[in-house]
Amino acid sequence: MPKNGQTQQFNKAAFQAAVEKHLTTTYASTDETATARSWYLAMGKALAEISTGNLLATEKNLAEQKARSVNYLSLEFLIGRLTGNNLISMGLYENVAEAMEEMGQNLTDLLEEERDPALGNGGLGRLAACFMDSLAAQEYPAVGYGLHYEYGLFRQSFVDGRQVEAPDAWRGIEGYPWEVLRPELSQEVSLYGHVEGYTDENGVECRRWVPAMSVEGVAWDLPIVGYDNKSVYPLRLWECRSNAPFSLARFNDGDYVGAQYSALEAGNVTKVLYPNDNHDQGKALRLMQQYFHCACSVADILRRHEAAGNSIESLSELETIQLNDTHPTIAIPELMRILMDEYKLGWESAWEISSKTFAYTNHTLLPEALETWSEALIQQMLPRHMEIIFEINHRFMKQVEQTWPGNNEVKRKLSIIQEGPQRMVRMANLCVVSTYAVNGVAALHSELVKRDLFPEFNELFPGRLTNVTNGVTPRRWIKYCNPGLSALISEKVGNDWPANLEKIAGLEKFADDAAFQKRYMAVKKENKQRLANWVEENMGIELDTDAIFDIQIKRLHEYKRQHLNLLNILALYHRLLNDPTFDMHPRVFFFGAKAAPGYALAKDIIFAINKVAEKVNNDPRLGGKLKVVFIPDYRVSLAEILFPAADVSEQISTAGKEASGTGNMKFAMNGALTIGTMDGANVEMREEVGDENIFIFGLLVDEVQKLKQEGYDPYRYYHADSLLRAAMDLLETDEFTPGNPGQLAAIRHNLLEGGDPYLVLADFADYVKTQEKIDAEYRDQKTWARKAILNTALMSKFSSDRSIRDYANNIWKLEPVSL
Ligand code: F58
């Protein structure tokens, strides 16, 4: 149990009284009428009383100390359930379990009542959540700024194998017990209108925005509780409300309420999270979300700065703003606008402050995910910002001209404005020009950012482009989700590893210890049983925990290649039925993935996997050797059951496409062996665990690029490999869709006629071979146990505490401040 955390403040009787009070006064329940849900809510409220007190104390302390802080701006924070995690951070898990037991309630059951706040899509949003946890654990002063979506990522179900989406009202009708409304922090956000010039009282020519409408931003704080310390940092989520009545004077002054936004209801702005992963849609409402988020957040940062008695000139000394991808980029012209139009600073002074305040993280090289916004749209919604972006670009183009005189091609390439029939603003270019640091999220990815995405920027701004390898929080992703393993680790290396993951290396010396191997594998078996129970209860599929549990859980995307995994399953199916000499260790292939609702091929892949699952799970000819389980509605709380239960972790993206991956790290920490390409953080994981303890296959980045340049022909592989052909051709039959041949043919078509953009066929043979190697090695349980233990032992680099220290030391220049 944490020593110096928030434990000492715990008074059991007072806590129980608080729970009772909330049960009766907040949720109008009596002991007789209370449901598990009302008990969970009342308990959550009682706990939030403690965390809110510490949140206010932390805020006050940081203001008094004039501490330098980071402001993490992200459109997504995929935090997952807070109650269990916060109990661990507060050091109150056992105390509260006991207190609730005395009230006749089982804590584990109550924790199941919480619905996941799914305020993010996938990796990027989950990273933001891990980072907040690590900032608080290490007491680096921080505020997370996000949006208070009414609906989080859609809920997924399957109807006849096809994905069906439903809205995710994550707060329920009662509201979320951990959130606290901060009405005093409300902000007014302007939109539309025009820009006018005027002469101020000193005779200086100025510009100002005359907006046509405004909305109100209301702040909700969620507590990010520091593990084993007293600090609590806010995750501040803005909700948009309409602030009626609109200024009538403006309405009378011409047609300000254009057809484009007259129908707009302010309540729409934060209604729903856009469900795209690695794909940019360019919708006006999305731009409005982004600006609303930035306007509220920048105003709040300036409010805090001033309230602590600091001058605007010292902004970049006390505050840094990290942009989580380009989604909050509009914060840059917003700060410039405020500095110039409201604080009356000149361009140079404003630029000096702004460009030393912002830093930017790039999470993708995929061209379709690089954000651009139509100039016309920005011009209409944010006319003053567009003017400022033009000015930034104008000055930048002069700099380019100095470095590459007369070179129009390089100007066209680097310009923030992309020319064409519809001029577009390239948000990534705006970020690189306007920030003091740009980082990729894994060593390989950051090299590719420099080499392929921004080579000229790297020349122009030496040292600006850097790397910070991602990480994940060991509190949620080992201690909380894998109590069996955690107890074993603590026994061997002491119990301070969750805050000091380097300590976990102490396990290395037990990798060959037969007794330890046995206990380690027994924990794995229990975790597999926990997952098998979930599957049996929720899906009615019975599983054998002696089988290899092989898991691929991540968003559904062609570049992540769930269909490569499927092709191997089809190959196994084919061999089990047609090759009498073929044998395999029983294996269960698990999938968990949501497809963006508009992404047809991704949805087809889900359908295909579900149809194959239906068949193989019920085919007696397979002798139970092959099972396929597609877990519906994959989310953080299910991830907490899946990661600890894995034997094999699937990280099989086309080399160069997955910026980092973070699930890969969670699996390895929990003792799964990776089958993966030389992509993202897999490369660094291999460096840490050694080549013998990871299964690497497939083309390297440069081989992928070369093959594409030479003209890749998927048919070449199809014709040359009879197993591949057998697997592919199964997709055209009615083997898995009886009576309806061709229902799965879209995938085959995409791979052959569609040119196989992610080189699935090129990597197939090596993937199959590597899976065979895994099959053989799993049969030697001692060797397998050794490798699994070494994976746990050698993962300390991938704690998000280390990532945050890298940011703090190399980019933000932050010092911890304890409460
Ligand atoms: C992910 N990006 C990367 N984007 O794909 C993954 O490799 C990396 O580990 C992770 O970021 C953290 O660095 C990602 O999840 C999104 O979901 C965006 C959401 C908004 C629209 C564009 C994609």
Automatic annotation (TrEMBL):
SUPFAM superfamilies hit by this protein: UDP-Glycosyltransferase/glycogen phosphorylase (SSF53756)
Catalytically driven reaction(s): [(1->4)-alpha-D-glucosyl](n) + phosphate = [(1->4)-alpha-D-glucosyl](n-1) + alpha-D-glucose 1-phosphate
Enzyme Commission numbers on file: 2.4.1.1
Source organism, top-level taxon: Bacteria
Xref: Pfam families: Phosphorylase
Keywords assigned: Carbohydrate metabolism, Glycosyltransferase, Pyridoxal phosphate, Transferase
Leading EC class: transferase
Gene3D superfamilies on file: Glycogen Phosphorylase B
Cofactor names: pyridoxal 5'-phosphate
NCBIfam families linked: P_ylase
Family: Belongs to the glycogen phosphorylase family.
Task of the protein: Allosteric enzyme that catalyzes the rate-limiting step in glycogen catabolism, the phosphorolytic cleavage of glycogen to produce glucose-1-phosphate, and plays a central role in maintaining cellular and organismal glucose homeostasis. Phosphorylase is an important allosteric enzyme in carbohydrate metabolism. Enzymes from different sources differ in their regulatory mechanisms and in their natural substrates. However, all known phosphorylases share catalytic and structural properties.
Protein's recorded name: Alpha-1,4 glucan phosphorylase
Source organism of this protein record: Photobacterium pectinilyticum
